[in-house]
Amino acid sequence: MKTKVLILLCALFLMAAGLQAQAMGQGKVITSALAGTYTIGTGGDYDSFNAAIADLKNLGISATVTFLVNPGIYTEQLCLTEINGISEQNTITFQSVGGIPEEVVLQYSPQTLATNWVVHLQGIDYITFQGMTIQNSEGSEYGKVIALSGINNHISILDNILNGIYIDFPMNMNKLNDYSIIFSKRGTGDLCNYALIQNNVFNNGSTGITLEGEYGGAMHIENQIIGNTMTGFYYTGIYLNRQDAPLVNQNVLTGSELVVNEIEGIKIERGINGLEIQQNQIFLQSPSQNYGIQVWYFYSDASDPGLIANNYICLTESSWAVKGIGIMQGGSQYLYHNTIRILEVPGTVFNPAKGWEGCLYVEFWDTQAGNGNIRAFNNIITNEGQQYPLIATSIETIQNAYLISDYNCFFTQAAVFAEPGNSQLASLEAWVSQVGMDVNSIAADPAYVSLTDPTPENALLGGFAPLLPLVPDDLYKQPRKPEGTAPGAVETDFGTQQQITQNVAFAAGWSSLSSYLVPSMPALEDAFAPIADELIIAQTMSGFYYPAENINTIGSWPQHAAFIIKTGEPCTLPITGTIEENRSLALATGWNLMPVLSQDPTAIEELFPPEKGALIIIKEVAGTGIYWPAHEINTIGILQPGKAYLVKVAEDITVEFPE
After folding, report:
1. Which end of the chain is more exposed for a tag (fewer CB within 10 A), N or C?
2. Does 655 fall in a domain?
3. Could you tell me the pTM of the whole model?
4. What is the DSSP string of 323-349?
5. pLDDT per position as a tens digit, 220-252
6. Into how many domains does the chain fold?
């Protein structure tokens, strides 16, 4: 009897061992914590992902563990929770054995809302998925690919192809999250920290990446989204909510061609500390609403500002709303070297109740602590369509000086250049005059290379803008020229213009000043530094600089500047800079203070042909010379470089100074 019992026990043991060996593939029985490298698939240590995950859950790990996945199609649904032994030193990686994503396909078609995922990461740390295709099988109304819940730290999604559901049907906006490719649940205790999502290809879905934090709760910390390509998303490429110092760099986002409602490229809503959104390319074409980059309620600090730089945003004009870059509330966000391009769509019918939008849109409505310090420098903003201003702001933005803007290049075909509050301004000059910004900006067609290459070919932009230390490289990681860079996302091949010096001499007392150069040091304190001991006051038609009392209502050296100045002693001011390429000067009806924009003396008749009859009189500022054509008087002779002249005209005109 004992012998029969022993034989039976042995048989049961061998049967169990055989079943386990069958599950393992090669019959390798693992009874202790996992460590080292294992294979999944035909001929490997495990037949399936779930067989490997079962051992992870049951046995834990004692060292770094890597699962190399053999080529094949794996129809499985994975759920990974906390693994015993996992740490910064002891990590877990699932990766294709050959590093070719197309060779390993992990797929599943979820059937319920409660199990809507292919891979579910539920409170796990230090895990990596690399070099595979992970896809939600077609035909499911539940479209998530990777779902995260609980607290997940140091998740890495690298070099994969992630396929969501192809949306070719009217999207119920209440079900957007059900079709997100990577989705982090927004709930109590749900966080994703220190994630790295890099070099993946995302196809379709409603949203490529959604990482949402709990309203009023803790924030996601230092997540990085780098170098991904997203194509065919229906609503948003990247959406981050409640983030601490997120980084979104070097991604290429192309929205679905089938979108009929709004679509967004990158949206970051509510956060703190220095975010980065750099070197991204965004292409959207909804007929209704296109939003490139939106940053709402994000508060950085001037010591660690948010940096939105070197992005190329290409949107089609739409019937309802367009925002190239939109800032709403928040503080210390620096918008440097972006290229925003709105394309014309012939036949677009604009909704008369369209949203209050603009290519650059900045909205504040209160004086909350931390608001403001939004800087827009060295950007190119162009609208080739017929609608939407280049800049739109709330009146509170202007009243509280929350926006600082300069050294930008603007070009528009639309009738309205800017909308500060409820005003509509038709030109850059009107914008400068009303709000006092962009005094060194220019209006010029950048002449892009192509739709996909935003390199400007207009030589005016070469070396036009000062180098910004926070942006040493361009969209393509090429170094910017330290002696002077091009605005926009891409540095030009045009050489920086040669720096030369113009010397302007003054007698003691009142004189005039202008220059045919764009000063390399435009701050008035710097520009007038060589005669700081002699200068008493410098004034334009709209402001003055009074250094003894530290008063400056002019700002920086304006484009086409003309000054009336007073010095205590004779002196000479050296002005160093580049030749002013824009020698077209607009004169308004009545009196003007006119600079001389040519390097050589200029005949008055060359600027003001007598047959046009617009000129009434020209007077020297501090002398007795006049030019009065009605009485055939000319005691000025010719216009001298370095001087400025008082000019009265009968109507608005534009004069062109010769080279």
Report:
1. N
2. yes
3. 0.73
4. EEEEEES-EEEEEES-EEEEE--TTPP
5. 999 999 999 999 999 999 999 999 999 999 999
6. 2
Q: Does 410 lie in the same domain as 549?
A: no
- If one compares 556 and 532, the residue with the highest pLDDT of the two is 532
Give the domain range for residue 552.
Answer: 497-659
Q: pLDDT tens digits for 391-424?
A: 999 889 888 899 999 999 999 988 889 999 888 9
Q: Give the tokens for residue 76.
A: 């499985």
Task: Select from 427, 456, 485 the last residue of a domain.
Answer: 456
Same domain assignment for residues 522 and 432:
no
Please, are residues 159 and 199 in contact by the beta-carbon 8 Å criterion? yes
* Domain shared by 637 and 520, yes or no: yes
Q: Are 333 and 306 in contact (CB under 8 A)?
A: yes
SS3 percent helix, strand, coil of the chain, rounded to 5, is 15, 45, 45
The pLDDT, as a whole number, for residue 186 is 76
AA identity, residue 640: Q
Tokens coding 485 = 């860079």
Q: Does residue 360 sit in the same domain as residue 447? A: yes
The answer as to whether 183 is a domain residue is no
- Domain membership flag for residue 9: no
And the tokens for 49? Answer: 């992902």
* Spatial CB neighbours of 423, under 8 Å, sequence gap ≥ 6: 434
Hey, what are 633's tokens? 């008087």
* SS3 call for 30: coil
CA distance 641 to 136: 71
Give dist(CA 419, CA 390) in Å, integer.
Answer: 8
Please check whether residue 265 lies inside any domain of the structure.
yes
> How far is the C-alpha of 152 from the C-alpha of 203, rounded, in Å?
24
Instruction: Please tell me whether residues 391 and 268 are part of one structural domain.
Output: yes
- H helix or E strand, kind and range, residue 12: helix 2-24
Q: How far apart are CA 144 and CA 141, in angstroms?
A: 9
Q: Whole-angstrom Cα distance, residue 191 to residue 185? A: 8
Q: What is the mean pLDDT of residues 624-640?
A: 94
Residues 595 and 649 in one domain: yes
